[in-house]
Design a protein that fits this description.
The complex is a heterodimer. Chain A is α+β, with helices and mostly antiparallel strands. In chain A, about 40% of the residues lie in helices and about 35% in strands. In chain A, strand 2 and strand 3 form a beta hairpin. Chain A starts with a strand and ends in a 5-residue tail after the last strand. Chain B contains 25 helices and 18 strands. The chains are: A alpha+beta, B alpha/beta. At the A-B interface, helix 1 and helix 2 of A face strand 5 of B.
Amino acid sequence: MRLSNSYEAVIKLLLFAKQGRLSLREAHLKTENEEISAEIVVEGPSDKINWFMQKANGSPYIRECRSID
Amino acid sequence: MKASDSLVKKMEELGVEIVFGIPGGANLPLYDSLYDSNIRSVLVKHEQQAVHAAEGYARVRKRPGIALATSGPGATNLVTGLVNASMDSAPLVAITGQVVRSFMGTDAFQEADIVDMVLPHVKYASVVIESSKLVKEFVNAYQCAMSGRPGPALIDIPRDVQQEDVGEYELLNDVVEERFIKPVTNLDESKFRRAAELLAAAQRVCILLGGGVYFSDATREALRIAEILNAAVVATTPGKTALDENHPNVLGVVGMHGRFESNLAVIDADLVLCVGTRLSDRAIGPASEFKKNRKVIHIDIDSSEIGKNVIPDIGIVCDAKVALNKILENLSVMSFAPKDPGWVLGLKEIGRSFDEYMFNQSDGASLSSWKVVKAIRDELPKSAIVTTGVGQHQMWAQLFFKVLEPGTFLTSAGLGTMGFGLPAAMGAKAAAPDRIVLNMDGDGSFLMTCQTLGTIVEYDLPVITVIFDNRALGMVRQWQDLFYKKRFKDVDIEDRTNLIKLSEAFGVEGVFVESYEELKTTLRRAIRNDEPVVIDVPIGKDEKVFPMVPPGKWLADVILPPGFSNYVEEKTTSAAK
């Protein structure tokens, strides 16, 4: 995931996971070139994961969200 | 140029005409900049009113309303209204003052982390730390609030940031970033064709409209599809404002307190076309039941809504107007057997029987709420805007107040915020000064934000308020009656608050009415003179809103008004004879 460079972006990302009732297993964050890249591992039903992806991709805080599994 | 001056200049350029708010230590530079501006500033009595008024304005004008508050309690008082706007997808921008940067994080006087408080519920919230980015942050928030699915945004500005010099205005970057307006792209044409094919093949089509239809201005397209398919048109509570309830295909609101015939339409349909709605449980009951025995097409501009509550047969991420036009295009080149118009006619007949039954009920010691609602409709011009509080009166309004023009019914649907009605009406009046605005309220709801009366007098924003006064928290009382064995606890308001004197204390005429004719006469005068008035209407506290689908139950498990089933049976039998 590519996030805008702000704490709010990171918080919003985690809030989406929480609102989707997903279990957060891992989170790696790195700031580079005025942007935060995040790799997170979440567990949950596929429809909730899909909801999370759509929600993230619709948010101004998140520039891009891709599934890597 | 001072940063706060640049912000106000940008607001003017974007067409902001009015702001609602309260100044305080942390937003004084912004208010100082407003001093020299043409933007009208309305000083409210409590920040909750500012944010509801901004929402009322936004829903009428379909552009962001603006609410201002200082730091700390000023900002936290906005929270209810921001969540309300989020739940009902209304565009607004809240601008809060914050303590100076060097004091942030020190528990300074009136410091509160408002951004993190509202973050779960707003589309965007940000603390502006660099003054050079203030204009850009406002533009981003403003465009974000309006784009796609509308919603609230907040920018929080430390006082010293507002005061800083930002140099020449023309050199400030004010280009909205693409991430704030993310347009819907890659429309899949085949989905529109498949949707049209399903609609053409279905026997009984029900079109369920949500609030998105109003914001997208798609009522005409929805009704055109209904006419082609002889479909029934129903709405969610926020979708009611998209209706023309005199249209022959329109039945009314569905759900927990939906019209009987509207719920029957959903139950009996073999296809439901859902447009601009999140399909909440309050509207459709349990998703598993809703999906049984019928196909579902779901159109919404917010991709995360597709499949969230109901997995549709076809999900389309698109603006409602664009999508419905594409479906119309596809239908126009298809040949299909005409649908039986008898289905909708039959449902309409059931609705007429329901109205007939209710309006023939004799009154008890007080007036009957639904007859009060009808009297209001009879007197109001078609273009009048009605707002409501939350509770039984709201449900009576959604059942019996016929919306005759889109955009004329504003209510707090998703969050159910008591106290919404009066400040929202004030905002609506500011947005449409030439139209009559009437707030239907309960006594419980009214007392939560009644200080707004002072503001409507001061700023000449005349609003009519009709209070359905049962001296109780009526809807909660109804639940205690039906589901808690009549163990009434803290729902009867035994105080002696005189609503007439209260209104008069704020400079608004108060009238107590004891008959429908008195109510109508008072309304006629207030409408003719476009003047504020509070009309106190006594309602019995044992009155219950029916139909009612108990929480968690399917629409078919509806509780009807006592005696209605027998009435219909007798009517059917006598018609058969």
